[in-house]
Amino acid sequence: MAVISRIISYAGGDDLAASRDFYVEVFGLEVAMEDPVLGLRAPTNPTAQVIVPPRGMEDPPPRFGIDVGDPAAVDAAHAEVVRRGSRVVYPLTDEPWGVRRFFVEDPSGTVVNVLAHLP
To answer: Which InterPro entries does the record associate with it (predicted)?
Structure first.
């Protein structure tokens, strides 16, 4: 079983600059990444994060992400998803920004981004 290092929420992204200002000024989050998505984190708890992808970046868009800690755990989760017959809606991929991930649809239809940072 994977060791979950964080669960990441996703927000819509029609205006990334306005979203950045909102989360920074209202909640005090800090910008951790701006490309390819706006990534924000709590300064005192860097595992508390909000990701704002530009609208239309991913189809289907995930509702949240689960960071399983390392790429081998992503592979293990993917194998279990396939074994169970769950629907993979984005294939197992090493992204150019440094994560290994795939999207799976849970039994209720929620799309989940399963990921880990590459070494």
So the answer is: Glyas_Bleomycin-R_OHBP_Dase (IPR029068), Glyas_Fos-R_dOase_dom (IPR004360), VOC_core (IPR037523)
